[in-house]
Amino acid sequence: MTPRRDPRPAAERGHSGGGARHGGAPGGTLTGSIEDYLKAIYALEELTDLPATTSDIAERLDIAPPSVSGMLRRLATRKLIRHERYRGVSLTPAGRKAALKTLRRHRVIEAYLASVLGFSWDTVHAEAERLEHAASDELIDRMAAALGDPATDPHGAPIPTRDGTLVIVPTQLLAEQAVGTSARVASVGDEDGELLRYVGSLAIRPGAVVKVVSRAPFDGPLTLEVSGSGAKAGRTHVVGSTVARAVKVDKPR
Amino acid sequence: MTPRRDPRPAAERGHSGGGARHGGAPGGTLTGSIEDYLKAIYALEELTDLPATTSDIAERLDIAPPSVSGMLRRLATRKLIRHERYRGVSLTPAGRKAALKTLRRHRVIEAYLASVLGFSWDTVHAEAERLEHAASDELIDRMAAALGDPATDPHGAPIPTRDGTLVIVPTQLLAEQAVGTSARVASVGDEDGELLRYVGSLAIRPGAVVKVVSRAPFDGPLTLEVSGSGAKAGRTHVVGSTVARAVKVDKPR
DNA sequence: CATCGTAATTAGGTGAACCTAACTTTTGCA
DNA sequence: TGCAAAAGTTAGGTTCACCTAATTACGATG
Ligand SMILES: [Mn+2]
Ligand SMILES: [Mn+2]
Ligand SMILES: [Mn+2]
Ligand SMILES: [Mn+2]
After folding, report:
1. What is the pTM of this model?
2. Nearest Cβ partner of A134 from B36, B62, B131?
């Protein structure tokens, strides 16, 4: 009569989801896939202040749109998102909380790998993308503590605190920075390792100061001066719009 | 005509298997489940020098025997084990290699967590059990290097080298040690956290020297003297056969 | 050497997370 | 305002890794 074994879905048990932590979080344990969807939705909402669309999520996660539709239904059932059919999704408080928790894990891991284990800033993201689903809360806390609870990750992105608070510093894209002005680099997008290696070779990293010398029309290339230490510092460089949209600078005021 | 996307099974892609590393290992990437099966088979073969049986594997992994049968068929198809129907399984060279690789990962992670991040020896196993499937080779190498390529994990178990060599020190179970003799503790089984906490409280850990004072018949309790530093050291203790079978001591010669 | 208990396998599910092909809804634009 | 393209969903698969119930093989014993 009584089932012999753990009747939970496979993904929530030992393996296959990666999401099996220990503490019984309200609403049940989240799989690794779910954590990545929530992170993606969070990032898209943040970016546009609008509901995230199916195709944006699909593109970001490199998953076919119908697969996303299916997952969104599951996320809605679990009350992690609100889904208006054909319109898009937004995170519920529970979903946002879970997204920020995963984001904290991701960024703490990145910071630890870079600071303590000597990983380069273009390799930490891929590693963190997997470890974020396998590390316990305990491990994340210990890594953060070992670094003195860092405020940002190696790419300059703010690290959510243990209680789910994310400090939002006003920034704008380097692509939007006025010609002739200087600004401090706040962060660089961490998804594309090649881009990070290139940007790093130009001494563009969080804290560096960049001056926009000129901007070609029609989303054209940007001429920059990077002031900072290093061999290439102080020289001018021409970067394309992809790079200019991957770099965030402090907003002037 | 051409398939739009990655046609690999879901478990080998982004998530769901945990086994998706980066380097294209020969024979295809292994899922986290497969890695755990191979580790279990390796341990059972090591223990008895006989083919591992379905029910032993099932018990060790807490999985129903029919599920194990199914997985064994898949492992045999992938040439990781040899399977004689109704008889048992043994690892092929490829399977053994994979098992040792996972074992190395597991033990390096345990050692790192204990030495660098201050985890206690009774908590590292659970953490390593998940991280072993998500960490890259690079990460394992860096953790091992940070510790000066340790020879053993916190429980005294030898760590396989990068090239898959495992140093086998002749040991016997504390349960088999002759009455009246002393021996150095080589290792303690790491699966049961509660047991580790208890054993640790008796100052029984790798390197400690234990003397068997007496042994009650019929698999009965053992009276021990633990010599070493610590408050409880030098006192006698009585431990049951479960503990006596979890502790390995150097073999006399 | 027949039999019976145990071990192993087969048969037939399930849910998660993906896919392509086909269909429906929304929307941008002539 | 009508209509085609784009976006989103539904329909119908697949694989993985688990499950229970039923069946088959093995091997110990009388
Ligand atoms: Mn991830
Ligand atoms: Mn980052
Ligand atoms: Mn494991
Ligand atoms: Mn261990």
Report:
1. 0.91
2. B131
